[in-house]
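Ticket #4471: structure export looks truncated?
Reporter: QA, pipeline team
Priority: medium

Steps to reproduce: submit the single chain below to the structure queue and open the exported record.
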Amino acid sequence: MKLTDSFGRIHDYVRISLIDKCNLNCIYCNPSNSFVRFKSNRSILTYEELFRLIKILVRDLEVNKIRFTGGEPLIRKDVMKFFEMISSLKNQYDFEIGITTNGTHLLDKLDSLLNFGVERLNISLDTLNKTKFIAITGRDYFDETLT
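Actual output as written to the record:
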């Protein structure tokens, strides 16, 4: 069985948002006139629920690529334990793990993520100009993002 939408299109790629929060305050995500409401921790899937979902996706629905996003996925509490959990699935089933991140928490986690089977990283970087970066993101994480 394959993951198919209501138009009959087959999907072998799924994007899962691990968290809706972010450590930046980008003007395009949080415009000054918006009333962004974040979900409570109780209303997002637990790591165990996500693990079961991913197992169904890769084992039963032939999904072969999963990208984790946010907000900023690497700020979710115990996120490295989660990637360790799904590495066991990666050893059983052939699928690709990717992460979209702003890069601010990547340096200290990179080696472990690679060991847990993460194959793709998409680092969101809006500009190479530090002044513009701070204006866009509302934070001075320019150097952390580039290292």
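Status: closed, not a bug. The export was complete when the record was re-opened. Leaving a note from the reviewer for reference: The chain has one domain: 13-146.
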